[in-house]
Design goal:
about 140 residues; mainly beta; four-stranded antiparallel β-sheet; 12 strands; elongated; disordered N terminus
């Protein structure tokens, strides 16, 4: 009974947040692959990819407010577009006991976009979601 009461109020003092869409999710690069996306680090920091592909290109702040990263699970739900094959996974709850990334990469001239939601929960089944955000990264590769 006590555990159930803790879960109603965020689960044993665990808290998290997500920056969501905004600055640094639209990237443009000339003559080389262009990346855009988001990364949740094991250390508790949320990052946006740089156009050159650095997954720690832009620090968006802390996603982890209290607790240990391994106390949380994340799920990415793809609404439209295609994510790069090196992503952490879509549709499943993944423990944040390691860094997780979701990104797009444009390898030829033109533009790719995606729309996805990330949810963070304090349980492996997602019954106690404590943070959610939408992301719409855009990667444009231009000619030199």
């Amino acid at each position: 009974m006590l555990l159930a009461l803790f879960n109603v109020f965020g689960g044993l003092g665990l808290s998290a947040q997500l920056a969501g869409d905004g600055v640094n999710h639209t990237q443009t690069r000339a003559g080389a692959n262009c990346y855009a996306g988001v990364r949740l680090s094991l250390g508790g920091t949320e990052y946006a990819y740089s156009a050159a592909g650095s997954p720690t290109g832009f620090n968006l702040g802390s996603w982890l407010l209290s607790g240990d990263a391994a106390d949380f699970w994340a799920r990415c739900t793809l609404n439209s577009g295609t994510l790069d094959g090196a992503n952490s996974g879509v549709g499943s709850w993944l423990q944040l006991n390691t860094t997780r990334s979701w990104a797009i990469v444009r390898t030829t001239n033109g533009n790719d976009t995606a729309d996805f939601d990330i949810d963070i929960a304090t349980d492996s089944g997602g019954a106690n979601i404590i943070a959610s955000a939408n992301y719409t990264p855009s990667a444009t590769r231009e000619a030199l």
